[in-house]
Every structure is written in C-alpha cells, then in structure tokens.
Amino acid sequence: MKKIFLGPPGSGKGTAASRIAPKFNIPHISTGDLFRENIKNQTPIGIKAQQYMDEGKLVPDEVVIEMLKKRISQNDCENGFILDGFPRTMPQAEMLEELTDIDIAINMDVTEEVVITRNSARISCSGCGKIYNLRSTPPKEKGICDECKEKVVRRPDDEPEVIKKRLEIYKQQTSPLINFYRNKGILKDVFCDDIMQTPEETFQAVMDAIEKFLEEMKK
C-alpha cells in the first residue's frame, strides 16, 4: 500500500511514519534523507541537487521527482511505501500522480498552538543529536546529554518565531493538498491536539485510521 503523511512541522508525522512502515513491511521514504544520501554518494541526481543548493536555490520539483522515481523503483517498494515530506505543494502532488497512484493520505491534524508548544520544548544534543523534550523526556542532568555528555541545546528552527513562519509556509503551500486528497476519497484525519499525547498514542491513532480505511475498502 502506498501512503503519504501530511501535517504541519512538528505534528509527529515523521515519527509515526517510521513506526508504521515496519508494520506493513514497506520502506519509510523521507525526501530529506533521499537528498542527503544522494549528495553523500555523489550520484548524478545528488550532484545536480547540490549545484542548486550551493547557489542558494530551491531544488526544482523535476529533480526531486527524478530522485523519488529512482527510489520507488527499487525492489523493497514492490508492496508499497510511505512518503514523508513529499508532496509539499500542489504541483508536486500533480507530478506524483503522474508517477504513481497513492492509496491513502494520512493527515496529522494538530493546532498551531500545540505545534508551537511541542516544538519549543524540543531540545537536542549538540554532539550525538539525541532529541529530548523539556516537558516529557528531559535529560537526567539539566543541559547535558544522557548518552554522550555533550551540551543539549534548542535548535534555531525550534524557536517559537521560526516555528510560526514555518507554519505560515505550510498553510500557504501544503494545506491545499488536504482538500486535494480528501476530494479523491483517500484522506484520513488523525487528530493530535492533545499536548500530552505520547508517540505511542499517536502511532495507535494512525494505525486505527489505516485499519478503518482498509475495512472500508473491503466493502
């Protein structure tokens, strides 16, 4: 089954997607990871993407689609995949539609207030990158990573003002995809507005939505 995960930054879609994928024995494909992998391995597509990035330009949709097309043609995608971080815009959704059919779109529905509260509480290790949450999973020693003992800091993109700007971009570019997939009859909303909702509870809510969708498909 081919799935995509939609939702504002900090909605938990990446974490949920990474946990859902093994349940269906399909790969979790993050476009961010694809970029890093291709650039690191200096593939022709990676070199092309790097050139745009070095010039401070956005990588064109055509290059992203080319990268994605190559990835989903691999053997581990025969039974489906989960896309995380793509599509982000209507033109990308239309290009994806020409490339392959999507079976279900999961929309992580969460308010702006909850996103800001969650993300601004997120801190990470400057050494190993381990992520903590000041509200639910703080480091044992304040400001120090449990694992490598390096300093734990808040990333610049988790500052409240930065989060607000990212949310505004999401509203303008990505929100129209919700109606696009809803009109196709393949969108399922997963409500994540409880600030105390755990990753396990979010994972279960997504699983319930997928299972309900599969039941409806059988009718």
What's the architecture, going by CATH?
A: 3-Layer(aba) Sandwich
Mean pLDDT: 88
Any idea of the CATH class? Alpha Beta
Structural class: alpha/beta
Q: What is the helix content? A: 40-55%
Count of spatially separate domains? 1
Please tell me what the overall shape is. Answer: globular
For this structure, the CATH topology is: Rossmann fold
Order of helices and strands: EHEHHHEHEHEEEHHEH
Strand content: 5-15%
> What Rg do the Cα atoms give?
18 Å
* Structure summary, number of beta strands: 8
In the predicted model, the low-confidence regions spanning at least 5 consecutive residues are: none
Distance between the termini: 17 Å
Count of separate DSSP helical elements = 9
State the CATH superfamily name.
Answer: P-loop containing nucleotide triphosphate hydrolases
Strand order of the largest sheet: 2-3-1-4-8
What does the main sheet amount to? 5 strands, parallel
Describe this protein's structure:
The chain is an alpha/beta fold. Helix content is 48%, strand content 15%. The protein contains 9 helices and 8 strands. The strands form 2 sheets. It has a 5-stranded parallel beta sheet, with helices on both faces. A 3-stranded antiparallel beta sheet has the order 6-5-7. A hairpin with a 5-residue loop joins strand 5 and strand 6. Helix 1 packs across helix 9, helix 2 crosses helix 3 and helix 6 packs across helix 7 (160-173).
